[in-house]
Amino acid sequence: MGRFRVVSVLLASALAAAALASCDDGRQDAAREAARRLAAAVSALDVGAVPLQGVEPSTAQEQLAAAVEGLGDATPAVSAGEPRLDGDSADVDLDYTWTLGGHEWKYRTTAQLAREGDEWRTLWRPEALAPQLGTDEVLVLAATAPERADILGAGDAKLVTARPVLRVGIDKAKVTADRLDAAARALAKLVGIDAAAYAQQAAAAGEKAFVEAIVLRDAPGRTPTDGQIAAVPGAITVKDTLALAPTRTFARALLGTVGQATAEQIEASDGTLQAGDETGVGGLQAQYDSQLRGKDGVTVYAQPAGLTAEQLSAAPDARRTLFEAAPVAGTPLRTTLDPALQKLAEDTLAGVGPASAIVALRPSDGAVLAAASGPGSDGYNTAMLGQYAPGSIFKTVDALAMVRNGATAATRVECTEALTVEGRTFRNAPGYPAASLGDITLRDAYAHSCNTAFIAQRETVSQGQLESAATSLGVAVDHPGLGAAAFLGSVPGSAEGTEHAASMIGQGRVLFSPLAAAVMAGSVAKGAPVAARLVLAPVGSGTQGSTTAGGPTGAAGSPSSGPTTPAPTASPAAEPGPPLTGAEAGVLRDLMRAVVTSGHAGFLADVPGAPVGAKTGTAEFGSADPPKTHAWIIGTHGDLAVAVFVEEGGLGATVSGPLLDRFLTAAR
Predict the structure, then answer these.
(1) Residue 56: domain span
(2) Does residue 386 carry a pLDDT above 50?
């Protein structure tokens, strides 16, 4: 009997479903399609083509645009649920997801549909856009930025951290209109900005606006003083903090700065940046911006349309909070930079006019301790991105290739006054000692930098062997642990005739950065290839820069200190040659020590501490007669490897050499 009852119930249910389907006449499907069209239209914030009831689509579109204008360029993802029919009416749930400043705001509203003939129309109501949104209310987004994370140096020393600043400007509420122009011009002159432009900015601002002129470090002895600022009618200072390095110039080309996001940065940020946000500008600040900046907190308010700041201040309860997400702090960026050595390097270059650089690293672990670009580099990261002919410091690569062909420091080579290759005559640098001409040892040829002796080896040292030796010394290969944009050198694997001859003395198509030169010196000191590293884990969400032999991804060219020969085409780095061995490095250390004991860098013999090894380099460039030259020197001193470069510097020994001497002596 029970079995027949179950069958009867199932049969009754089936008959009821059939009856409902028969009565529906497609209404459910039509309502479902109307709900889908509504959700798609609201997702695009465009209801102009949606069938509506009780209001024109154009009017509804104006209301919609006004309601969401305060959310910026964000658009929601909206999906419709299954309509619930009640005769010729239906309710449908709309599920919203907004992505605001990296946070998701999710909620559900209900829209009403009504059937007119064969068509379902939407009854337009603001509450379908946001929970209980009134007809006179709009949505407004407010962001709260977390404090930007620090950039740390060796031992987690704070290189860039929040430091006190003063925002200096005119408070228009404190100066009469007839005195505004004169006051703005006086303040602009005092702080050193364009007076006409600032006066125009002040005139265009609101009646009670604070018109910022400049941001100054709030430090003892600053100029202008508080008294000088206060003497200007309407001028005030507002205390604040900004992410700053110890000084305005400290590692600026490497670290970058922090400033207000540009329109281009906002557009490219996919909604994570808004007008007025601060973001990284150049260097590590830009490269690791998302890690350092963290995530803004966001609040969405529903408030009366047209509510002014003054009205809100007087009646804060006039708006209500619909969504709130707390800010997420950024993650500090840890680097290997040594603050004392970085400052020493910058102080050493302070008086150098042309573009220049000093790079110091620790051979034992590859840590970059200093990467300073001098004032003549005009803000360009010459230290890590510069691309220059290395000149005679490249003879270190030659020497390794020769050693691999059986040579030793005592091998005899021929040093002539000149050598002609396919019609091009190569000579030694001016002042080359006559006593070191003729049949000399490889040690003497390296110590005195005999060009002709090394060029003469082109018949036994192929261009491919030069490339292999360079990569064995850490040059022209990837340094994936560096964590920053850099150029690590380029050595062509094939070259013939005069080009191959030029390669033997670090010219032709051979290019180094000061960082690459320091890596080469460090590899000699370590007795194995050095893998440079600058940014330490954790690197968070920042994107590490390319460090291939072909050049850094997205690196901008220098306006005044870029490569003086054509830059190589970006390409995969060369396959590294056989790793440098301890025995090979021993020969190279012998050669570099000879440069100090009997060669061009005798002035380094008095540097206290461990014995210094060195190699000078002078590279001609350009078409002037006589040609201009790059001045190079590399040095090793215990667990320290240093490269010094001056773009238009004469001879390496006389220009870059004293800079290295000063740096090594003070670095002990």
Answers:
(1) 23-138
(2) yes
